[in-house]
Amino acid sequence: MKISDLFALAARNLARRKGRTALTVIGVAVGTCLIIVMISFGLAMNQANEEMLASWGDLTQIEVYGGGSGYAVSIGGTTVGGTSDERAVLDDAMIEDFLKMDHVVTATPFYQPYSLNGAITAGNNGRYSTLGLYNMVGVYSDALSEMGFTLASGDWLSDTGNYGRDVIPVLVCEQTGYNFQDTRKSPSSANRYRYYGQTDAMGNLLPPFVDVLKDDLTLTLSNGDTENPKEKTYQLKVVGSINPDTSKGWWTQSSFILRIQDLKELTKEYEELADVDTGSGGSTYDTVYVKVDDMDNVEKVDEAIQDIGFTTYSMTQQREAMQEQVAQLMLILGCLAAFSLLVAALNIINTMTMAIYERTREIGIMKVLGCALGKIRSMFLIESGFIGLIGGVVGVLVSLLASFVLNNLSAILAMFGAGGDMSGVISSIGGIYMGSGSAVSVVPPWLVLLALAFSTLIGLVAGILPASRAVKISALEAIRHE
Hints:
Blueprint: H1 3-16, H2 18-56, E1 61-65, E2 72-75, E3 78-81, H3 92-99, E4 104-110, E5 118-122, E6 128-130, E7 136-139, E8 151-154, E9 167-172, E10 180-182, E11 217-222, E12 231-242, E13 256-259, H4 260-274, E14 287-292, H5 298-308, E15 311-314, H6 315-358, H7 360-368, H8 373-407, H9 409-415, H10 445-471, H11 475-480
Parallel strand pairs: 7-13, 9-12
Antiparallel strand pairs: 1-14, 1-15, 2-3, 4-14, 5-6, 5-11, 6-10, 8-12, 9-13, 11-12
């Protein structure tokens, strides 16, 4: 008997008992549908979490904080850092060590000279002035583009550019102009200040006092001594502006971004001017940003930096916690769905067992005619496999329909005159975040194929016991069976 004959015979046998076959198929379909829908919920939750975390911060960025303990790590077969008796410090040498690590794209310190006294001014006679120099940050100029920042206009800072004596190149942000106040207005006057988003009586957006892309900017360092004042002035040359990206840092909204060597030079100049030691001359940093090539490698790099002795923060840490929460929830839901497939498997066993009792005489005749026991076993396994496959196909189709309905529930309800945003229909399940507009159910192609394979396997496994029973039936007794 050819394999094609076995398939044809199995199909005819199932077709002879349409009612029983249909009920068994429905059981498999229900189990398959439940499993797909449950897994699709988990995939949708993970996708929503990824979108949420991406809006909170760069998933491939690690923030490293100063401090640390002794360290000695091997990078590329070479030991870098110090001995276990030395304290790890977050300085330029350490950043070079970070850059040697696998999967690290770039790294830059985030340096703010809080101790500087002075202001940035613009307008006639310095009419418009900042409250201080707190909004200046220093970074590696060659790291910005690799960190994923984008230019709104102009060019990046350059370490090789010749900008002139006492001229400092800077990048500005969208809201940098709102740092300035009108010094000719009373400190108690509301007209002294401009805030981003502020409007006039007509609802028109008020521009900042200073157009940082066009107006001349002067940075003045002061020793703060009223009796013996000393000052040092620099011209700020705006070479470009960057697009705000709060996912990479709040400072991308309204800061003056300088090359780190310029900011260190300003700190040194201020210490000489004021005859003080600020203790923040830029030899060490409070924060360093490390960019990783892929979020799947962030954990590995994060652990390597922690092994050195530094404290780190990355969105991956929250991502792992969320994924673990989703995995626990999906395990519970998956177990519930698996019970329905277990019931379906028992139903298949019952259906095939009944088929064997009804076809005992047929089995006996096949044995007398010399049909191999393996062929008889294969015939029943094919029948049970057919039930699993057909049930799987039906279950997949129903689950795809259910996924479509869930993802478009708001639009469907609107068609029938019902309003309301239903995008968060399962947002309360297990406390998992499902943002507005997020997909409730995600069914990728691999899940469809996996479900079909699993349902077919369930059918084959469920058919093993009845098929083995069929081959053990005595041929003579089977022929005498009525």
